[in-house]
Design brief:
Shape: globular
Largest sheet: 26 strands, antiparallel
Distance between the termini: 100 Å
Length: 471
Amino acid sequence: MKKILSGIVIIGGIALALPYYGGYKAEKTLRQIAESNSTPEYELTWESYERGWFKSEAKLNLHYNERELFDESLDIPVNVTLKHGPLLFSKIASIGWVQYEANIDENILPAELNEVIQREDEQDLFEGHGYMNLGGDLIFEETVAAFSIESDEISLNVKGATASGTLASNQKLDLTIVIAPIALDAVAESNENITITTDTITVLMLADYSKVIAKGLLPYQSIIEVKDISVESEEISLKLEGFRSDSEVFFTESNTLLQINSANTVKKLRYQGGEELSDITLNFSYDNIPVALYSAYIDAFTTDAPVDPDKILNEDIIEAAFTHKAGFSISEASVKYDGAPVSLNLKTYLKKSDNFSAAALLQAPPLLISSIVLNAEMNADKSVAQKLLRKQMETAIAAQLALNGTDTTISDAELDVILDQTVQQTLQSSLALGYFTEAADGYKATVSFEDGVFKLNDNELPIDALMQAIQ
């Protein structure tokens, strides 16, 4: 009998201890999440965390530094209620350490935010719920209700958004975000009205918060997909179909160098006059960027203080950039115009010369130009080159005829002959001058710049002559 009673006492003690341990474990994890999720644009802090035995109440503050929409930084309060396990019964029936519900305390939202934000229904602007399983993984789902923002400069309408995923006990995040259609009307710097609309946006992300290098800087992979995007203004009319962007960020050289790779595709792009481009690809990368440079740049441009160049560039950062050949690459930029291809690839990086001196470069920034290495190649189908050149000629002739008035007339047949002759003469002249070379089915141009020497199709061009040509 005593053994049975002892067993009951032990089991009862464990049952009572588990909720307290679950609350402790949850608090520790949630504080880590807030710290690692802070970026230069926003910061998460726990203003209070009252941990009880079976339940905890907490207040999370989102400090938003971005001031594109608002004159001042904002503080958005979030209430969090946590129920300790191991038996959890709420929106989700489960077994785990803790279950939580979160919502924004709309009664104490900043007045500036309340003045511009409007909701389409009575649903809470934000609500979230989830639980931490016995393995320490946090499973969550969050919802933002449909809302709109109205100000003198913009009108933004968002049909809502959801975020769901898992933050594993090893701090690896698997996240899915779905943003319902967006409509944005804004006034550009030229005082021109511009309208941007999107179909549903889907974002998939894998991130490793155990390897945060600096605030907001950590290794991740992401995929962004949008079926349709349109941009309309008095000067612009664009419609993109089938947009996808794959990106990854990782670190090398003991986490001192940053690598950013991005692969982007658009199935179709329609613009003014019914013109259409298809199979657009842009794959680019930032190579061997010193983490210290990136961090300094972000810190400098996300504060209200004047930018201090000395905080962005110093001898150590310059030395690292040149030693590791920091640069930018376009591995593929290609498009089809009327079904015919045009492509470009490019690589540029910093080259460390024999007499390199970071101190001298800081004293005389123009020296940087002679340290840049650039190699690029462009290929165009012959039909594309002819069509683009013909279109340019048509515009020029139409403008000239308009200046001459009604006294000058020309038939369509005569215009076709003039255009055909002018296009062929221009292409032959460009080939003779070495602006590009002729390949099997197209034209090719190569450009290089190294040690202060500029070459076009392996022909050296004086820098002074090049600058005069550009001007």
